[in-house]
Amino acid sequence: MTNKILTVAKWEFIEKVKTKAFIIGLFLMPVIMGTFTVLPGLLASKSDETTKKFGLIDQTGHYEKVLNKLFAEKYKLANGMPNYALVKIEDSDTSLAHLTTLGTARLRENDIEGLLIIPSDVETRGVVELRAENVGNIRDQERLSKSLEDIITQHRLSEAGFDAKKVRSLMSSINVKTIKISEKGEEKESGFLETFVSGYIFIM
Question: Does the pTM exceed 0.70?
Answer without folding.
Answer: no
